[in-house]
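Aggregate trends can hide what the representation actually does to any particular protein. This step matters because it turns folding into a mapping between discrete strings. For completeness, the protein is quoted in full, as a sequence line and a line of structure tokens:
=====
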Amino acid sequence: MVIDLSSFYNVPRQMDKFFDELWKPSMISQRRHAYPPVNISEDTGKIYIYSEMPGIQIEDVDITLTDGSLVIKGNRKHDTGNYYRQERPAGLFQRVINLNVPVDADKVKARMKDGILEIIIPKAEEAKPKKVSIEAE
């Protein structure tokens, strides 16, 4: 009769991993402070930023473009009433998005529809890829 105990050799490592993940506050705290959530994408000419802001009025949001970063500030007003549970954060918020390419600040467009803030940032000409022709000799 052969008894395989190899699965028990890994138990201490698995327990350590479990408790490390359980007590790691960084995952929870980063998620809480990363408000509003954003999706960022790009193509050869533009950077697209989409941010979820349900229930926030346009006049309560401020967008600032500086050298190398975009700042989204705002205030989600507190709703009145007694809550059993409140998972949507309220109060002041700020989100800084670092842009790693030069942009054309004069042509930035932003709009909000159905609680989604859309920001389109055109890249500067020097940041766009250039086609290089090959000469034959």
Remarks:
- The beta strands are 38-42, 46-52, 61-66, 69-76, 91-98, 109-113, 116-122.
- The helical segments are 6-9, 11-23, 26-33.
- The first helix runs from residue 6 to 9.
